[in-house]
Write a structure and sequence with these properties.
single chain; Rossmann fold; 36% helix; 12 strands; alpha/beta; 2 domains; binds uridine-5'-diphosphate; 6-stranded parallel sheet; 367 residues; 15% strand
């Protein structure tokens, strides 16, 4: 099948509209993938919550907006929590649309980390593929992904091996990485700026450890991202000397990257098995080395000693020490890693290869 003959439906996250920041890295991933797929000549349709806006360069996509109440994110619930779909929830509405449009498409690609689309996979004719966006934060999701791997393994892909290791899979995981429109990120060669941290401000992202390191160094820390948990944000702020955190807000990529690019290092301190870590690659694309915990996706993305440093999780002393050695990192190496390993075009190619071979998979049992 040629790419230009392929029609694919992407279904966005039900956590918030694209552009809200509530969907985390998935929002940027969808924009990059749309661009990459359009460059490859595919026909792309996006089903997304009302208000969703894609970055420029995506005008060739057909968007179907759907209204409804946002889904609650799994990572902010007990791991034993039951499946909950709110009354008037956007999730089932997204899937009503997707299944209807999907009848005339080659494949439907799901971005939501949710029970419903995974469960539907073996019960409908439409060929649903899933790019799993999180590690195993919920028992019910872990079980469902494990079961689906037994009957439809080729329909599941992951961002990193470390993320996939949270799941009990029937075969080796299909790992597709991620992709970025690197033209949106300017390389900045000067490394004398402040320290930075970026992400949703929520406990699983571990902002407090980065602030502690900045405070140890008597430095300030620039922080970008949606404040998802205001009580947590203010508890972190008041635990350290005033002025250590400089809140920069949740910015569009163009402004985010231009400010981030002036930093001497990005600190990345996840407390969970981070599936990928978009901000790590965005930082490298600007030429900013990353000092991160050797945990989850960042542990797989950073070439320690070349594009930044990996330190044992929770080891604030090592992190402080590595920041003092940040001049040993050549910022050009950071940019060139991003170009080689994380372009939108390369990512779209990997996604298309995965879906094409999944469509041919004779082992898929039910449809
Ligand atoms: N981000 C942004 N503007 C900001 C700060 C962050 O657009 O001011 C985006 C960033 O581009 C990234 C996302 O927020 O795509 C965070 O994603 P990441 O994969 O790092 O973590 P997640 O939120 O998915 O756990």
């Amino acid at each position: 099948m040629n790419c230009s003959d392929m029609k694919i439906v992407l279904v966005s996250t039900p956590l918030g509209y694209i552009g809200s920041g509530k969907g985390g890295g998935v929002e940027l991933t969808i924009g990059s993938l749309v661009k990459g797929l359009l460059k490859l000549g595919l026909k792309v349709i996006l089903v997304a919550p009302e208000g969703s806006v894609l970055p420029s360069g995506c005008s060739g996509v057909e968007i179907h907006h759907v209204s409804g109440k946002s889904q609650r994110s799994w990572q902010h619930q007990e791991s034993s929590a039951d499946v909950m779909i709110p009354s008037e929830g956007v999730l089932p509405k997204l899937w009503e649309q997707a299944l209807e449009i999907g009848e005339s498409a080659d494949a439907v690609l799901n971005f939501s980390y949710d029970w419903l689309p995974l469960w539907l996979t073996s019960h409908v004719r439409v060929k649903i593929f899933h790019l799993i966006s999180m590690g195993g934060v919920s028992d019910v999701m872990k079980r469902l992904i494990g079961d689906l791997s037994k009957s439809h393994h080729s329909r599941l892909a992951f961002h990193t091996k470390r993320q996939a290791s949270d799941y009990v899979l029937a075969h080796q995981p299909i790992v597709v990485g991620n992709g970025f429109d690197l033209d949106n990120y300017d390389f900045q060669s000067e490394g004398g700026g402040p320290l930075g941290w970026a992400g949703r401000v929520a406990p699983e992202k571990g902002l407090e450890d980065a602030v502690a390191v900045a405070a140890n160094l008597g430095d300030r820390l620039l922080v970008w991202g949606v404040i998802e948990d205001p009580a947590y944000a203010s508890a972190v702020e008041t635990s350290f000397p005033p002025g250590t955190i400089e809140w920069r807000g949740f910015l569009p990529t163009s402004q985010f990257q231009s400010q981030l690019g002036g930093c001497r290092a990005l600190l990345n301190t996840p407390k969970w098995n981070e599936a990928y870590g978009n901000v790590v690659v965005e930082s490298l694309a600007c030429g900013v080395p990353v000092v991160a915990y050797d945990r989850g996706g960042p542990g797989e993305l950073i070439n320690s000693g070349i594009t930044g440093w990996l330190v044992p999780p929770e080891d604030l002393e090592s992190m402080t020490d590595r920041i003092l050695r940040i001049d040993e990192i050549d910022r050009k190496e950071c940019r060139s890693w991003a170009e080689k390993s994380a372009s939108d075009y390369g990512f779209a190619n990997r996604i298309v290869s995965w879906i094409k071979s999944g469509l041919l998979d004779k082992d898929v049992r039910i449809n």
